[in-house]
UniProtKB/TrEMBL annotation:
Keyword Heme among record annotations: no
Family per record: Belongs to the ABC transporter superfamily.
Protein name: Amino acid/amide ABC transporter ATP-binding protein 2, HAAT family
Pfam families, per the entry: ABC_tran
Gene Ontology MF, one: branched-chain amino acid transmembrane transporter activity
Length: 232
């Protein structure tokens, strides 16, 4: 489904991504973990065409994503929920949900999103900036779901969100994955990543330094300690 091979990104003189190789297969959930500043967000932004790669390939379902501008990549079946959520603050929940929908409203899809996140339905006409952080995150995920993606990429979706909503968001991400949508998740919380995702990629200094299944990593706390500086 998604395949990054030897991906490089430079920013000015900085060599930010130094050969990232990773794969997410159809239906899989993968976590990308690493300390601050190792290049996780840059990897996601490169996939979405928001930063230019200087080497390597990015393939999605047989397409070479580098051939498409950023605004077309979302339409290829990849949903992106950036850090900070990226919702439109002055637009209502309903308007935010439908921002990428071409033509008439897809009410079936809206109902699916409301079934995932009933709070959004209760706040349908409320401007985005009046929602709590957790509700904004639900809205950002809901907006992706409106486009019927086959893969959703999430950058720290539970960062700075009140605990009660964190568990709901995690549960929904799990359910979305169970419904067949692949997930690529950047997550600070190792425990959450291991619970939610079947596969894990550990990143350091712009490259993947370890990959494996979550149970494999759980059984190797010394690796978690070496690359993330903590034990589970
Ligand atoms: N636009 C930019 N210009 C210059 N350097 C940048 C730019 N964006 C990111 N960087 C640098 O690239 C490196 C990787 O950043 P990135 O945001 O990808 O890391 P990260 O692993 O997602 O970190 P965090 O967990 O803190 O979000 C950092 O050193 C960062 O300062």
């Amino acid at each position: 489904m998604l395949s990054l091979r030897d991906l490089h990104v430079h920013m000015g003189k900085l060599h930010i991504l130094q050969g990232v190789t990773l794969e997410v297969k159809a239906g899989e959930s993968a976590a990308l973990l690493g300390r601050n500043g190792v290049g996780k967000t840059t990897t996601l932004r490169a996939i979405m065409g928001l930063v230019s790669k200087t080497g390597g390939t990015i393939q999605f379902d047989g397409l070479n994503l580098s051939n498409y501008p950023a605004h077309e990549i979302a339409g290829k079946g990849i949903g992106y929920v950036p850090q900070g959520r990226g919702i439109f603050p002055g637009l209502s929940v309903l308007e935010n949900l439908n921002i990428g929908v071409k033509g008439k409203r897809d009410r079936d899809r809206e109902d699916y999103v409301f079934a995932c996140f009933p709070r959004l339905k209760e706040r349908l006409h409320q401007p985005g900036n009046t929602l709590s952080g957790g509700e904004q995150q639900m809205l950002a995920i809901g907006r992706c779901l409106m486009m019927r993606p086959r893969l959703i990429i999430l950058d720290e979706p539970t960062e700075g969100i009140m605990p009660r909503l964190v568990s709901q968001i995690r549960r929904e991400i799990h359910r979305i994955n169970q419904s067949g949508v692949s997930i690529l998740l950047v997550e600070q919380n190792v425990e959450t990543a291991l619970k939610l995702c079947s596969n894990v990629f550990l990143m350091e200094k712009g490259a993947i330094v370890h990959s494996g299944t979550s149970p494999e990593l759980k059984a190797r706390p010394e690796i978690v300690h070496r690359y993330l500086g903590l034990t589970q």
